[in-house]
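User:
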Amino acid sequence: MVSLSRRKFLQSSSVLAGSILLPSLVDRQPTKQNPLRLGGPIFLKSDDPAELAREHRRLRYSAAYVPKVELTDTTRIDAIRKAFASQNVLIAEVGAWVNMLEADAVKRKKNLDYVTERLALAEAVGALTCVNIAGSFNRTQWDGPDARNLTQEYIDATVENCRKVIDAVKPRRARFALEMMGWSLPDGPDSYLQFINAIDRPAFAAHVDIANIINSPARYYNNTALINETFQKLGRWIVSVHAKDIYGKDGHFAETMPGRGQMDYQTYIRNVTALPREVPMMLEHLRTAEEYDEARQFVISQADKASIPLA
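Assistant: Predicted structure:
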């Protein structure tokens, strides 16, 4: 792999962005405004794909995380794909939450094999994306901060890892994406554009989680502008979006559920539904059905205020 210097990596966004920038998605008048495909975890105790799909619709979800299934269980994969399609529930994501930069070589290979298997599952079940973080050089926390997460070594290793995973699966429909993080790359739209350029694979896409990249007062108090910029620069590659919120607490930023923080959710929803394809917005990181109900109802209320229907 040709090494892309960190300076060139960090400077190339202006060239790449300049070649594809469009007017802000929320400023354009799309010929067709997409409905919002909202999704999240469900708490129904059932393994029946048809029952699971119906429960999503009962909750007004039209997107879902992949139900529990192994790549080798082709019968169940087929049943899940058919059941969810029959209820117009899009399988948004297959998560692959492991450290692709694990210091131990044996564990790192095991993690990369797992991510590869998860991307293959996304392809088999008809999911839009398999998503993971790039990883971390932190030796005690798989997603923890580390100064080396901003180095050339990190960039080169992440580009190589993503290429390996994609090239092993060669997906035709599913995409592989990295979740943006506040303490490692990609940490916003510009660094994400550079990874898109450096990885150079059609199967590599963009995943958006605005709460994760609000890591400064400027981004916190100007999150409307951050949302618009992120979708303006990454819109053509975005395949899935996470719905969380963030608030200031004791001099730092803390994650919370949608509606309990300061994020401009109407702008967030307008940008998601103005994309050229239907992109799911997925609730996550809550503990109980009641918490998800509160978050779900808030997002739906914001979509209503923005005059955007649910799918």
